[in-house]
Design brief:
- Strands 6-7-5-15-16-17-14-20 form an eight-stranded mixed sheet, sandwiched between helices. The protein has a six-stranded mixed sheet with strand order 9-2-1-13-22-21, covered by helices on one side.
- The two termini are 14 Å apart.
- It contains nine helices and 22 strands.
- The longest helix has 19 residues, at 62-80.
- It is α+β, with helices and mostly antiparallel strands.
- It has two domains: 9-47 and 155-226 and 320-374, FAD/NAD(P)-binding domain (3-Layer(bba) Sandwich); 93-148 and 229-314, D-Amino Acid Oxidase, subunit A, domain 2 (D-Amino Acid Oxidase, Chain A, domain 2, 2-Layer Sandwich).
- The chain is globular and about 65 Å long.
- Helix 1 packs parallel to helix 9.
- The relative contact order is 0.21.
Length: 375
Amino acid sequence: MTASPKPRQVIVVGAGIFGVSSALHLARLGLDVTIVNDGAPANGASGRSLSWLNSARRADTAYHRLRLAGIDRYRTLAATKPETASWLRFDGGLTWDADEETNQIVSIWQLEQDIGYDALLLSPAEVAAVTPGVNADAISPQGAIFNPGEGWVDLPALIDRLLNEFRAKGGKLVEDAGPVRIDVTGGRARGVVTAGGEPLRADSVLLAVGPATPAALAEIDVHVPDATPISLLLKTQPIKTDLRAVLNTPRVAVRPTRDGALVLDSAWSEEEVVANSDGTYTVHDKTVQGLLDEASAVLDGNPRLQLAAYAVGPKPIPGDGEPVLGELETVPGLHLAFSHSGATLGLIVGELLAREIVSGNPHPMLATFRASRFS
């Protein structure tokens, strides 16, 4: 890949964590940046994310190292901005597998030990002394892994903070623009065209529209495989609990929130969501209650959990599960940010993409994540 000319004006399509983080980093580097979004900020996957900051169960790969860098940036933010303490926490993560032949807890703990990922293997009886609020009887006899360096972030709160700085640096946000079309003229990205037909010109474009990415690229004859499922995130009413860590268990994932509630998700509950032909979704009452019951079962004292709200919609995952990041070789000036792990990667991906866009030089940490691997 050859270096592209240094841009002056950049359009970022999407106001989720990847789009807003990248836009702010570009504005910090002195560029004229406009964010164009179909709706309000954080109205997509970033607004319904469990937002667990982790690199658990990962081998020592480029994806693992990128996630570690992502966690590092959050630690820097927490250390330098004490006001983040209510919505950015590092209270650890606890995970266990079902009591079945496929239980991998010991081997996963050994893997994490081998690559230097901070991990403790705990028996059910040892968990309470390390991280509170967990029902020891729910933990399988093979034990659980506690990762002290993990945490969680409230992405809408983070996005709001980043947007405040973005605007202060002269950045512009266009909301409710509808789905935009990438303007490719002469083989190069020249800007976008809004749903209303308004052309917006730029030297470079960053496409950060989460699950809508493959369809947007297909309009310009670029194919990126898609494995996007439907996600379902429940939020409970505030509940008195000592839980501080993020829980990743066989039947439910649980994390605390800034207002004393819990958010919950799971693979099985997502599979029970019905996608309707009109683009809406049906979530059955039994699915909601089942998820609440599963969460209660893993909490100390089995508290009664009540639903406050839920969010449902597509969760961005590329076809091979790995991020798709950086400039398209076939369409100079068009850059991509399409990945699962948006919370963990949000700050670092924005930083690296901005550096790449401004310098015109490919960033080595993004080398294995180019869309060209699908060519």
